[in-house]
Design a protein that fits this description.
- The complex is a heterodimer of chains A (354) and B (271).
- Chain A has 354 residues and is mainly beta.
- Chain A has a domain of 115 residues: Beta Barrel (Lipocalin), CATH 2.40.128.630.
- Helices cover 7% and strands 42% of the residues of chain A.
- In chain A, the strands form eight sheets. Chain A has a four-stranded antiparallel beta sheet with strand order 1-2-3-4, with no helix packed on it. A four-stranded antiparallel beta sheet of chain A has the order 5-6-7-8, with no helix packed on it.
- The longest helix of chain A is centred in the N-terminal third of the chain and has 25 residues.
- In chain B, α10 packs antiparallel against α11 and α11 runs antiparallel to α12.
- In chain B, a hairpin with a 2-residue loop joins β3 and β4.
- Chain B is mainly alpha-helical.
- Classes of the chains: A mainly beta (354), B mainly alpha (271).
- At the A-B interface, α1 of A face α6, α7 and α11 of B.
């Protein structure tokens, strides 16, 4: 009898481990994301949030002290009063002191994980959660309002100061009033919106869709101005990037292209060595885009390749250009954060905390 | 050929096809997919039920009990006599285990495909995006870009997360309770209870009736609620399968119910 009981307990443990193994095998490892001010980079990656000195790549602080069982995922956001806002897989949204990494407050009313970064606009933090809600908090972490959308929110919203714009996995784009959280308009597009929208000062909102389209919407009404379809098998993960003259988008087939923001007409395109999962970035003089294939491409504004750098990992999150440095947080690489100069020469790299 | 290629990816695509055919309800798709898999594996289960019944009859037979008494101090001789009796009666002691062993990878594949199709995180969606078969678009004319990501909302649940029904601010694990309850009912009405102090199989069954509901209830409490939907559907279909084969003992649910008399007498294999 005792032996059978032990066998049953062992079977229970074995099945638990198998099921947990199945689940974790399918669960994404945390994709590290980075933001930066002029002196410090803030990286949410794996079990920690890091503050890194931009001059030499040394760690300034790390949070939490002990490795978190629920890895951070959401890209960090910085507030004007010196907070780092970062959401975790444990459903909590944390405020950390930008200088020391000490925890200021925790918002724990969300019911799901934080995948999208928060938007800080004025005195308000707009945080999208996978529980279908956009939460608006004051800078002390108190809830101002929440807006329930049709599906999960996986990316940071954008704002023109009056309204907040965001997309959902349910193929919807929403505009809500920034101060009240009331819906202004909602528009259905042809696929899930996984990345952040991009807002043009002229009042056009651009989104990339899982159906492979770049869609331009009238920001005041939500009306579709134009839609640029990609090839039938492609999907667009990240939001398009806007410069003074270009609207840049990348898709799962490795195509990077520039569209005329006014008409959606393609002006040039390049084929890269892997899927483009993260948005391209530009400082107005050059364009930098990373691929799942592990390359970082530098283009000039006409779409001519300047040089290519191998980052020995997958680029799933958008690189950051700050001063003369380009920061990349690769996945599956020996380093969690790597800094390159404009010539593609590595300046420093940060290994993961042990 | 990997496990993913043979089991998980085909299962995932069948699940996506069902999801599309029923108009985008993932909860119903899991239930239908469970029924489909149970129907496909029904011959295995029927064979297992038949073998188990034979084994139960064997355990309670006078012949076996006499042998047990006779050789109670000689384990080696007892084992020899047991094997001989198995042979004479045409019982394969592994016949009840084999169908179960075959079903285990299918059940794990089913679970993995449910988790994969749900794609509850960006990384999972990235993986799912790569395993959606081109057949869905070429043969079934399904636009996977519209199909994926799936709508994981079912009734009050997000199928990608552990379930709680919030009433007055208190999270009640309704599904975990239903999983435990249906597992108990299934175990109680389908597993033969102990018929005496020497009935080891019956004693194991009695233990299973208690531990299985607790175990699956714990899984339902901890893992994504899509798995709980699968457990409940599997339990109910399992009871229906036993009922179709006339092997359900509803009286076992009544308090103080005595073990049902063995209907199947063991017959010696004709030579």
């Amino acid at each position: 009898m005792k032996i059978k009981f032990v066998v049953l307990i062992a079977a229970f443990l074995a099945i638990s481990l198998l099921l947990a193994g199945c689940a974790s095998g399918l669960t994404a490892s945390s994709w590290a994301s980075v933001v930066a001010d002029t002196q410090t980079a803030y990286l949410a990656g794996g079990s920690y949030v890091y503050a890194v000195n931009l001059a030499n790549g040394t760690q300034v602080w790390r949070y939490p002290a002990k490795a978190s069982a629920n890895p951070f995922y959401a890209p960090p956001a910085l507030t004007p009063d010196g907070q780092v806002i970062v959401g975790g897989f444990d459903h909590n949204l944390y405020s950390l002191n930008q200088q020391t990494g000490a925890q200021n407050w925790v918002f724990s009313l969300a019911h799901d994980r934080w995948y999208g970064g928060a938007l800080v606009s004025g005195e308000t933090i707009y945080a999208p959660n996978a529980d279908y809600n956009l939460y608006a908090l004051d800078l002390h972490g108190n809830l101002k309002w929440s807006f329930q959308a049709d599906q999960s929110l996986w990316a940071a919203p954008v704002s023109d100061g009056q309204r907040i714009y965001f997309g959902t996995l349910g193929r919807k784009v929403y505009a809500v009033d920034a101060s009240t959280g009331k819906q202004v308009w909602v528009q259905t597009v042809d696929g899930a919106v996984l990345g952040s929208p991009t807002l043009q000062s002229g009042g056009t909102l651009f989104v990339g869709t899982y159906a492979g389209s770049v869609v331009a919407l009238d920001a005041s009404t939500g009306r579709v101005r134009w839609s640029h379809p990609s090839s039938s098998s492609a999907w667009i993960w990240a939001g398009p990037a806007l410069t003074d003259t270009a609207l840049l988008a990348g898709d799962s087939t490795g195509l990077l292209y520039d569209l005329d923001p006014g008409t959606g007409t393609m002006r040039w395109h390049q084929t890269l060595n892997g899927a483009v999962i993260a948005s391209p970035v530009s400082d107005g003089k050059s364009i930098v885009v990373g691929t799942e294939g592990g390359n970082l491409y530098y283009y000039d504004m006409t779409g001519s390749l300047v040089h290519t750098v191998s980052v020995s990992g997958n680029v799933y999150t958008t690189p950051v250009i700050t001063g003369n440095i380009i920061l990349v947080a690769p996945t599956g690489a020996p380093n969690v954060l790597v800094a390159y100069d404009q010539n593609g020469t590595q300046k420093w790299a940060l290994p993961p905390a042990k | 050929m990997s496990w993913e290629t043979i089991i998980v990816n085909p299962f995932t695509n069948v699940l996506l096809l069902i999801y599309h055919l029923i108009g985008g309800n993932f909860g119903v798709a899991i239930i239908l997919f469970t029924i489909l898999i149970r129907l496909i594996t029904h011959p295995l289960m029927a064979s297992q039920i038949k073998s188990s019944a034979k084994m139960t009859a064997f355990q309670s037979s006078k012949e076996w009990q006499d042998i047990q008494k006779k050789f109670k101090d000689d384990k080696e001789k007892l084992a020899q006599e047991q094997m001989k009796l198995y042979k004479d009666l045409g019982i394969n002691p592994f016949a009840s285990c084999l169908p179960t062993i075959i079903q285990i990878p299918i059940i794990f594949g089913l679970y993995q495909s449910i988790m994969r199709a749900m794609a509850a995180s960006p990384g999972q969606l990235l993986i799912l995006s790569r395993v959606v078969s081109p057949l869905l678009s070429t043969v079934f004319h399904i636009n996977s870009a519209i199909l994926v990501p799936l709508n994981s909302k079912f009734l009050w649940m997000n199928l990608g997360q552990p379930e709680r029904l919030y009433l007055f601010g208190i999270g009640i694990p309704v599904l975990a309770i239903i999983v435990a309850l249906t597992t108990y009912v299934q175990s109680k009405v389908t597993l033969p209870p102990s018929t005496g102090s020497n009935d080891q199989m019956g004693m194991t069954n009695n233990m299973m009736v208690i531990t299985m509901p607790l175990m699956l209830g714990y899984f339902a409490l901890t893992f994504a609620s899509g798995l709980s939907v699968y457990f409940i559907a599997g339990n109910l279909v399992g009871i229906a399968q036993y009922a179709l084969l006339g092997k359900v003992n509803w009286k076992a649910l009544l308090p103080g119910a005595k073990p049902a008399p063995q209907k199947q007498a063991i017959a010696r294999k004709s030579k």
